[in-house]
Amino acid sequence: MDRSRTFCFSLLLLLIQTPFTQAQNIVSIPDLIKTGIKSEAPTWSLVSVHARTKEGYTYFVLSHDAQQVGIHVNEYAEQVPEITWTSLATAAPRERTELKDIGDEAYLIGNGPYARVPMFDVVFRKGKVLVHIEARSAETALHFAELVAEMLPR
Question: Which of 21, 39, 41, 55 is at 20 to 30 A from 64, Cα to Cα?
Answer without folding.
Answer: 55
